[in-house]
Amino acid sequence: MGILERIKEIEAEMARTQKNKATEYHLGQLKAKLAKLRTQLLEPPKGSSGAGEGFEVTKFGHGRVALIGFPSVGKSTLLTLLTGTHSEAASYEFTTLTCIPGIINYNDAKIQLLDLPGIIEGASEGKGRGRQVIAVAKSSDIVLMVLDASKSEGHRQILTKELEAVGLRLNKRPPQIYFKKKKTGGISFNSTCALTHIDEKLCYQILHEYKIHNAEVLFREDATVDDLIDVIEGNRKYMKCVYVYNKIDVIGIDDVDRLARQPNSVVISCNLKLNLDRLLARMWEEMGLVRVYSKPQGQQPDFTDPFVLSTDRGGCTVEDFCNHIHRSIIKDLKYVLVWGTSARHYPQHCGLSHNLHDEDVVQIVKKKEKEEGGRGRFKSHTTGPARISDREKKAPLKT
Length: 399
Ligand SMILES: Nc1nc2c(ncn2[C@@H]2O[C@H](COP(=O)(O)OP(=O)(O)OP(=O)(O)O)[C@@H](O)[C@H]2O)c(=O)[nH]1
Ligand SMILES: [K+]
Ligand SMILES: [Mg+2]
Prior knowledge:
Structural class: alpha/beta
GO biological process, one term: cytoplasmic translation
Protein name: Developmentally-regulated G-protein 2
Number of domains: 3
Region (Disordered): 367-399
Mean pLDDT: 89
Domain TGS: 288-366
Bound molecules: guanosine-5'-triphosphate, potassium ion, magnesium ion
Shape: globular
Keywords: GTP-binding, Nucleotide-binding
CATH architecture of the largest domain: 3-Layer(aba) Sandwich
Helix content: 25-40%
Number of helices: 12
Distance between the termini: 74 Å
């Protein structure tokens, strides 16, 4: 029997099993079996790179955003509007058949936006180009789930389920479960709080399903069986997702209002170019990018050309910033001077572990160099965090 048939069989068995205390262990075991099969399904066929023809797009810019949605919700129309790169749009389904990249210039950063074919229910099991599309989504920093505001609200759940089936977790944080495989010693099971979804026996049973007989498990929250399986599998990807309801031009104002109030949602109309600026701002927020402007001694920082750091990729400390410029900088570094919201006073002398904020200005002071005086626009006696205003960015920084 193939993997897909076995998945179907287990799903059918789960559907006909009543949920109660007596079936809890059996259902837990089925969940673990299902998760194992889905992981197997994700392994690329032997001899292939995994991406598939038309989907191998090189990463570009400071971040990558994927457009995921059912066919004809307006993904290509949106890409064309936001990036200026033309992607064919039409009223028939599956107009887009490959991955089409475009670039958004926002806040002096470059963000790669990817248009993708529409996906449908069953995509995670290989329907349509579902597997390739989801692989691209996984390679992104955030997902924009594009939905047709005039269609069923169930679409959001269907797509979320498809993405979850391949190990994507949207707008969730990893479960607070410590898990470590051991060579000997059996299973040690502990928790720091009361557990209402799982007990020692069920935990053992799931570990047994994975043929794990020696391990340390510590629950730091009231987690579920699904959470435990996620931690054991260890291959889950936790991503931010913004739900983008397009085509609000064809629905009533009450419905627009209701959709706009859903969590993590933005309502737009590509046809009327409505609310696209809000969508970009939201995308920027979720990406958590940090722009740092480098200030050479005695000169103005270049406010048009930031170094862009990311908490998810690499981190945002002074050390990360230095390494971003050049690996050799750290060995000659004495300290850095920081202006911006991360500084307690201007300029603050900071070491490698200092966390930088978006729009900070940093001057590197090398071991031999003399530091710059505290005079000028960002005075050293300035107290409290303050954003460097747009006006200050434009005005010359006296040094
Ligand atoms: N009323 C309305 N129609 C829109 C809007 N945006 C896009 N459309 C229309 O929706 C249809 C589908 O648009 P596409 O951009 O091709 O959608 P898609 O999601 O890329 O579709 P596939 O590539 O087939 O998955 C086209 O006829 C668009 O003109 C909108 O804001 N309002
Ligand atoms: K279409
Ligand atoms: Mg399209």
